[in-house]
Amino acid sequence: MNDSNFLSGVLVPTLYLLSAVLFIYGIKGLTRVRSARRGNLLAAGAMLVAILATLLDLGLVDYKWILLGLVIGGAIGAVAAVRVEMTSMPEMVALFNGSGGAASTVVVLSILWARVVESGYDGTLASLNGNASALTSFLSILIGTVTLSGSVVAYLKLQGTISGKPVLLPGRHAINALLFLGSVGTGVYFTFFTADPASTAIFALALTALALVLGVMLVIPIGGADMPVVISLLNSYSGLAASATGFVLHKPVLIISGALVGASGLILTQIMCVAMNRTLVHVLFGGFGMEDSAGGSAADSEYGPVRSYSPEEGALVLETAESVVFVPGYGLAVAQAQHTVRELASLLEKHGTKVSYGIHPVAGRMPGHMNVLLAEADVPYEQLLEMDEINSEFKNTDVVVVVGANDVVNPAAEEPGSPIHGMPVLEVWDARTVIMIKRSLSPGFAGIKNALFEYDNTMMVFGDAKKVLQGLVSELKEALAA
After folding, report:
1. Which residue, 38, 67, 115, 373, is the most exposed by fewest CB within 10 angstroms?
2. Across residues 297-302, what is the average pLDDT?
3. How far is the C-alpha of 423 from the C-alpha of 268, rounded, in Å?
4. Which residues contact 182 (CB under 8 A, 6 or more apart)?
């Protein structure tokens, strides 16, 4: 066997197989906090092996452009990894999803340009590449472009550049239906019917434009409360687009890795929907969180007497507690208070207090947001307890410290007729005392009153989460030193 046959027949397929196996184990590692870092490294290694195998498979290529791309892309990734705050991870994930969709679209468009337009091929795309490859070309452009524009809208909502509230345009469902049907019609036409290279290019670009608008229209009606679901779904879309591109390029490793991302994203989306007691259809079309800005003030005025306490009074309660559970929410992320929470927890542990953390699946702006923040603060993995594990423990807990969470601890979930009725929540009210750290009585993303604020065993401590926690640490240190 000569070198060329060995390269194409043995080495490249073996490397592709190795890459696929590493991708599988990488994603498996991401299912647990303890193994997530290793899983991420395995997946990164799988991508490196896939790139090297592809370069070997291509043979003679102009490496200066490839190296330039590696340097520029690597520099952007390195800078982002170092400089982007953990609180901005949801936005970064949204951009990653969009980048994946954009890459799939650009690759397929470049293939169309090279194989059809530049070559002047006089025939349909289906007759050139086969029906399966032609169909996946159309699907890759559609899904990839929807992912790109939808992810940009999600990023802007998370950044606060545009309102996080749903934008419900009149006749939006009819508009979306027309855009979708127009995209499908355009894709089918340039794939199976047009035999003119110029027409193929025009219709491919028309499909891209329609899909861009469709992506925007699909995401702008979705409110901030549903962003974890949207991010999971867009992640799945990016995987499906990549898998479709794999069929176009005849690269099994791209099909496998894309399918893994697509399937895992769909599974995670379903988990998020169950955690919110909502269907995916309701998330995509329900306009949850449509309450206007005046709703917060109205919700404030509905409260009866709410008792406000100082950090000093909160520290007195913590000083006598034998067990404490911290419940983090998006307010912790905004205040960047994860390290201060860890400092307070360490202080309590030295005092002999049992400490754990209750994690709700949709707390924050993306799946696993709280886990990521607390891991950054070196919180032990074994102290992070999921909702199903921790709920039965609240009855035996002396103090629950809720840091910036709202909807995920709202007892309204147990009230028929409530917008969040049936949503699984952390039942913190079963604890002896609840210390609720919030800036104000304003509602969460659901836009509804939280009756927990009025409970007899609730201590409301108002202020920036980080400053309040620092006050608790300072007071507790003085009390323990006395």
Report:
1. 67
2. 49
3. 17
4. 210
3-state secondary structure of 442: coil
At 322 the pLDDT is 95
Q: Tell me if the pTM is above 0.90.
A: no
**What is the tens place of the pLDDT at every residue in 174-230?**
999 999 999 999 999 989 988 888 888 999 999 999 999 999 999 998 876 677 788
Tokens of 323: 């067990």
Catalytic status, residue 407: yes
Catalytic-labelled residue, pool 3, 226, 378, 407: 407
Q: In this structure, what DSSP letter does residue 115 have? A: I
Q: How many residues in the chain?
A: 482
Do residues 309 and 316 make contact, with C-beta atoms less than 8 angstroms apart? no
Backbone angles phi, psi at 324, to 5 degrees: -135, 135
Beta bridge partners of 325: 356, 400
Task: Report pLDDT digits (tens) over 341-375.
Answer: 999 999 999 999 999 999 998 887 777 888 888 98
Q: Packing angle between helix 197-219 and helix 89-112, nearest 10 degrees?
A: 160
DSSP H or E stretch at residue 417: none
How far, in Å, CA of 49 to CA of 134, rounded? 28
| Helical spans, DSSP H, in 113-171 | 125-129, 131-159
For residue range 34-56, list pLDDT tens digits in order: 788 899 999 999 999 998 898 88
DSSP secondary structure code for residue 286 in this structure: S
Q: Is 424 helix (H, G, I), strand (E, B) or coil?
A: coil
8 Å CB contact between 357 and 379: yes
Angle at CA of residue 187, ends 181 and 190, nearest 5°: 135
| Sequence-separated contacts (24+) of 269-275 with Cβ below 8 Å | 269/229, 269/232, 269/233, 269/236, 271/361, 271/367, 272/228, 272/229, 272/232, 272/361, 272/362, 272/367, 273/229, 274/424, 275/360, 275/361, 275/362, 275/387, 275/423, 275/424
Mean pLDDT of 272-285: 77
pLDDT digits (tens, 9 = 90+) for 60-102: 777 788 888 889 988 988 898 888 877 778 888 899 999 999 9
Phi, psi dihedrals of residue 365, rounded to the nearest 5°: -115, 0
Helices (H), 223-251: 227-249
Query: Given the structure tokens 């103090």, which residue do they identify?
Result: 399
Confidence of residue 7 (pLDDT cuts 50, 70, 90): low
Are 199 and 124 in contact by the 8 Å Cβ rule? The answer is no
